[in-house]
Each structure stands twice: as C-alpha cells, then as structure tokens.
Amino acid sequence: HQRALAHNILFRNIDATSVGISFDETSNLELIEKLFDIFEINESVAQLDESCELGVTQAMRRNDDFLTQSTFSKYRTEHEMLRYLRRLADKDLALDRTMIPLGSCTMKLNATTEMIPITWPEFANIHPFAPATDVAGYTQLVEELSAMLIEITGYDAISLQPNAGSQGELAGLLAIRAYHLSRNEAQRVICLIPSSAHGTNAASAVMAGMAVVVVACDDRGNVDLDDLRTKCELAGNKLAALMITYPSTHGVFEQKVTDICELVHSYGGQVYVDGANLNALVGVAQPGHFGADVSHLNLHKTFCIPHGGGGPGVGPVGVKKHLAEFLPSHPLSVHDEKRVGAVAAAPNGSASILPISWVYIKLMGAQGLRSATMHAILSANYIANRLDTFYPVLYRGEGGFVAHECILDIREITKITGVTNDDIAKRLMDFGFHAPTMSFPVSGTFMVEPTESETLTEIDRFCNAMIAIHAEIQQIVTGVISHDESPLHNAPHTVEDLCAPWIHKYSQQQAAYPISAMLGRGYFAPVSRIDAAFGDRNLVCSCEPLESYAISLQ
User: How would you classify the pairing of strands 12-15 and 157-159?
Assistant: First the structure.
C-alpha cells in the first residue's frame, strides 16, 4: 500500500492481506506499468499486451455496423463539429437567451464564476471513497457549506448526502420515522399532506413507510386549519408528520404557519417543511425558527446549481437537534448507530458540485442573500399586479400580496374563447419566451416565478408579451377572428411557416413580430405546432422496419 501511495495511486484497503483495484475507460498501459512496479512484477507490459487475448471471445465480438446514423459520421473536422453544436444550441430556448418564468422551479442565474471550480481536477477527479487524509480541502468545503446552510435555515444539523430534493425528502421522513421508533411509537405512520403539495411529497411519505392523508386548503390557498385540526384528532397517536411547503405551492405566505406547527406538535407529530420555495425565505425567515423540525433544500433552485441535463443534483436535509442522530450515515463515515443508513452511494453525495453553492453564498454574503429574496418577492408581485387585469391572480395572501411566484388563472378565458394555456404557451415562443409552469398546482393555469435574476426590462418584456397575447384573445372574444384561425391556435410560427405560401387570416408580421419591440429578434421556434395530446397517447415508432430484425433459421 505504501508503494502505491509513492506512485500517487490509492488502493482500496480491504484487510491486512488484500487490496482492491478498479479500472475504467481512462486506464492505460502506463497505469499497468506502475502497478507492475508496485507489485514488483518483472514482466514487459507491452509484451504481455501483445500475448494476451481480449476478455471478449471472438465468437462474442460484434461484427455488424453500429452508430450508422449520418450524425455520427458526417462531421469530420472540429470546425464542422463546432458548427453542428452551435446549430443545436440555436434551437434551444434557455436562460442564456431569455427569461424562463417556470413557477416552482426558480430558474435563476447559474453564474460562470460559480461554475468554474467544478472543472478543476482538484474537485472533479477525487474518488468519493478517498481517505480523509487525501480530502482535507473537500472536508473543509463540506463543513463550511453545511455551517452556512444551517445558519440560513435555522436548523441544528444538516446532511449533504441526498442526491436530489426527492432524496432529501425521503431522508427527512426516514429521520422522522426513526425518531418515532426510538420512542417506542411505531404506530405513528400517518403523514398529513395539504392538497396543494408537490407530488413528490406523497411518494416520499409512502417510501418512508407512512400512510398519506390529504388536508384541504381554503379559498386563499392556505392550509384549512379546521380540517387540519380534524385530521390531527382522527389520527391521534398515529400521527407521524405534516408535510407543508412554505411559502405554499399556491404562491402565498401562510400567516398561520407557526400555529400549524404548534397544532401538529401538540398531537405528537413532526413538521416537515418542503424547501422547494426557500428562495422566498433566505435571509428573511428560517424554517427551523418558526416551528419546522426538518426540511430538504434544493441546491438547483435556491443555491444556483444548474437544472436538468440528467444531474447530478444535491438535496441537503436539515433537522433540529432531536432529529440529528437520525440523519443519513455511510459505511465509510463514523456515525451513531441510530442513523438511518445511506440514501446515496457516496458519503457526501454529489460532492463535486458543492463548490457552486459555496461560491454563490460566499459571493452574496448575508445582505446579498436577503436582498435577492426581497427582489424575487418584489418581482413576483410586480408581475401579479401588472397582469391581474388581464389574467386574474388566483391566490394572494391576507395582505393582498403573493410570495415569490403567482398563479395566473386562464380558465375563464378558456371557457369563453376556447383558448387554452397550451395556446398561450405556444404563442409565447413567438415572443421569444419559455412558457411558465402549466396546470400546476391548478389545472388550466400558469404559475410564474421571475426570480431575483431578471431585470425590470426583461420582466416588462414578458408582461408586454402576455398583454399582447391578451389583445389577440380579445379579437376572438369580439369575433374579429375565430380561435382556429388565430395566431394563438397556430403558434409557434417557424421560419419555414413564414416563408411558405401564407394561408392565414392574420399577417406574417403579426405572426413573427407581434409587437414592434421584437423587430430584429434572434429566435424562432424550430418546430411548429404539434398535437401534444395525440402524441402522448399514441406511440409512433421511428424504428427500422420489422424485416430488419429478422434472422435466418437455417
């Protein structure tokens, strides 16, 4: 083992006489030569390579063509490949081009400064099972980020192990379940969840061994306290937890959140506050101080790691002191035996992207984080007030304000004109905007979240687009044009549509440049309207014909 360390190679230490060695696609003959030297094998690696047969026998080797699509062979130079990638990027409508107002998604800036460190080999190339002596810097990063998140949330302990918000939910509920079991209260299995909750809440509760009971919401979108009290009484000593999102998924601050927490605690339950909307709380309020026992955080939302792309994600789970001993553990870490075990393969989960959130918090500072929260709330209320005349805001708090997002009600428009939120979403593409969240948490609505990253200019551009679309809806209301003949029904309009013989009752200019401020815009949707519902319900196979799969029986 010491000889390996001298070559900067780490073996897996199994016992006094055994080590583990793993190889991947980056392993080469140079590595084998080092291993031969470590084990004092006096053979030529090159000669051994020539004399050895491959691990796959000749009979099992593939002999037919693969990657035969032209995409894999037509770009023969770096220049052509670069241009191909650019053409693909030009089809995308991302944050580098426009505001993405997806509600409950917090599509804020992923700053370049935050992203750079994850490319450094010091962060990217360390094995997650490396010994503590080799990861002193990572250990410091994890400790500092954990301490900052504890201060932000008001909790007493935190685990960075969960690989996503959903895993963080599960870890938090497993902690609650383990807590009840430690108190000989195995009967506590009822998890109360408001009807406005994120869909993952119920799934996580079931995976943690709990039974879900739904709590009603009132006309303002708040948890119905009377119904909550009734459900708590019915659950009695079987009550395990309440899961709520704060601010709520309806986009409002529930004024009685502390009363809600106290009520659940009075029946012996724990309160899980979903951290999905933490971007409306940072620097302003702490879940751990208004009554919550546990929360998960979405680093891809509030703390700036990128969305999508297949991951990796991070969903830290924070808890109050009495739940700390039930946080996730790992075989490679020293933890109390009461802990619930691992929820991810690595001790600190997707550790390589933790630098993003560390840099974000360090750059912002306490005052910057508070300012970001206030600007996010201000921007959402600005949108709500500008658009309320055209698209009623479905829920507001007791003071008439929304939180960091708002729900625009399209249902009456649909009832009168036939124009759906899908029509408006497609038309927004013609204005160069990604659609808001559709039909969540209320069917037939939009949920809009601007975040603090968007300027007033960009927010006004979005509002102006929505107002212009409303004017097109009014033309349908007044009979100037029918729904089926309107630009809303035919959106989005591609360059191919605009260059083809024009068959619509509205002009090409209205289709492509519905407001003068859009002249010179650089984005056109790459695909025109498709029948999404038909596509969802009917599989259209693009596979090769059945004959191509036929084999000979001779």
Answer: unpaired
- Provide the 3-class DSSP secondary structure of residue 132: helix
Say which residues have a Cβ less than 8 Å from residue 513's Cβ, sequence separation at least 6. Answer: 519, 521
Of the listed ranges 114-123, 229-238, 359-368, 527-536, the least confidently predicted one is 527-536
CATH topology classification for 376-537: Aspartate Aminotransferase, domain 1 (3.90.1150)
Identify the CA nearest to 127 among candidates 14, 39, 236, 11. 11
Sequence-distant (6+) residues with CB within 8 A of 437 are 102, 103, 104, 105, 446, 447, 448, 449
Q: How far apart are CA 488 and CA 435, in angstroms?
A: 14
How many Cβ atoms are within 10 Å of 383's Cβ, its own excluded? 26
Domain 157-349 has CATH 3.40.50.300: no
Task: Round to the nearest angstrom and report the end-to-end CA distance of the chain.
Answer: 56
Place of tokens 């440049």: 513
Name the H helices within 325-455: 354-387, 411-417, 421-430
In the block, tokens 């905007």 appear at 433
Q: Where are the alpha helices (DSSP H) in 218-321?
A: 225-235, 257-266
Eight-class DSSP state of 545: P
Specify the pLDDT at position 551: 59
The tokens of 288 are what? Answer: 């751990």
Nearest to 303 by CA among 284, 274, 276: 276
Condensed to tens digits (0 to 9), the pLDDT of residues 88-130 reads 999 999 999 999 999 999 999 999 999 999 999 999 989 888 8
- Whether the per-residue pLDDT at 549 is higher than 60: the answer is no
Token reading at 313: 């994600």
Give the residue among 529, 513, 516 at the shortest CA–CA distance from 432.
Answer: 513
Question: Between helices 225-235 and 257-266, what is the axis angle to 10°?
Answer: 10
**Contact, 162 vs 216, CB < 8 A?**
no
Query: For residues 149 and 368, what is the distance between their CA atoms, to the nearest angstrom?
Result: 15
Domain ranges in the chain?
2-54, 157-349, 376-537
**DSSP run (H or E) holding 311:** none
Please tell me whether residue 293 adopts helix, strand or coil conformation.
coil
Asked if 435 and 425 count as a contact pair (C-beta separation under 8 A), the reply is: yes
pLDDT per residue over 223-256, tens digit each?
Answer: 999 999 999 999 999 999 999 999 999 999 998 9
Rama region for 494: left / alpha / beta (φ>0; ψ in -120 to 50; rest):
beta
Answer with the residue of higher pLDDT: 200 or 365. 365
- 168 in Cβ contact with 316 (< 8 Å): yes
DSSP 287: G
